[in-house]
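My current task is to audit a protein record that another person submitted. Please read both lines and tell me whether the tokens look consistent with the sequence. Do not assume that whoever made the record got everything right. I have pasted the whole thing underneath without changing anything:

===
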Amino acid sequence: MSKFGVSQPVKRVEDTRLLTGAGAYVDDLAWAGQARAYYLRSPVAHARIATLNVDAARALPGVLAVYTAADLEADGVAPMPAPGFNNRDGSPSAKPPRPVLAADRVRYVGEAVALVVAETLAIARDAAEAIEFEFDDLDAVVEMPAALGDGAPQIHEAAPGNLCFDWGLGDEAAADAALAAAARVVRIELVNNRVVSNPMETRGVLARWDDAAGKLTMESNTQGVWDAKRTVSKALGLEPEQVRITTGDVGGGFGTKGYSYPEQVSIAYAARALGRPVKWIADRSEGFLSDAMGRDHLTVAEAAFDADHRITALKVQTLAGMGAYLSPFAPFIPTGAASKVMPGVYDFQTIFIGVKGVFTNTTPVDAYRGAGRPESIYMLERLIDKAAR
């Protein structure tokens, strides 16, 4: 058999190390003098923060620090970067800021409100329970059609009507004309539900600051360190060469670890502020609440056919959930990524794709397992299958 032939076995080299406990996951690492971090997270989907008193938590033995949005803002920590592009009419898409820790409001269940750093994880957990966190509930909206409806709760002032973007690709007028002239039109409505990742090792960050060198070193189980490096350096006002991020064994990613998160910024901030290493590992329930989720699409697709049953046009309209904030690649997934494979192998002469990005009081959405391409192919093959039947 030729080299790299079909069905040729490939000798693996990493299995023995991983299967015998010699892996180098984030939670396997222990840097000298490291402290442990724990987040107080919102138990509700939408509320105004009325009271956030951390004095009692800070006074507990073994607690090194308790940080809130006010602390980070006072030290000049910038919010997370917000991606965007132009709408169909040429106007810019909405890019509301995403704070590293919730400031005036919480906008989804699991949003980080305060960061506790202590000598041990148990102490940090206990201290989080001592934080006085009171909130005034606001109406929440979790379904996209409702979020776009009249009178829906407003999630961001910068996104009127909870519309993040209105994007289009192709010739809508030509697609509409082909549908109107078609001998037969086949139409489907699909729900591509939210999904949550479940990696073997949950997300983790271990960071330390070298004051003499003026450099930050971070270990984080990423799928690529560059987005985190850009985000952390910008948020903390550092030059990129002052930030070194490494990834050992990832422990599963599926797309979910491919972009930056607020925890990478706040743990780096804490390490610099305290002058000692700080480690955070999400527990499983915390990961389900705070990891970026996938998909969340509502799609209507129509195909036009002539009298000989040849395809003449395709029109696809999708509502794409962004969650409560924009994660780094969220707007690209249902637009640029999805459109690349939208025609499949079929001979569409005219295509129009329209996507509206919608904010809801839910966990942010981003790339997961194919990132837009599976949604497109699922839609397309369901449509063709119905047409054939």
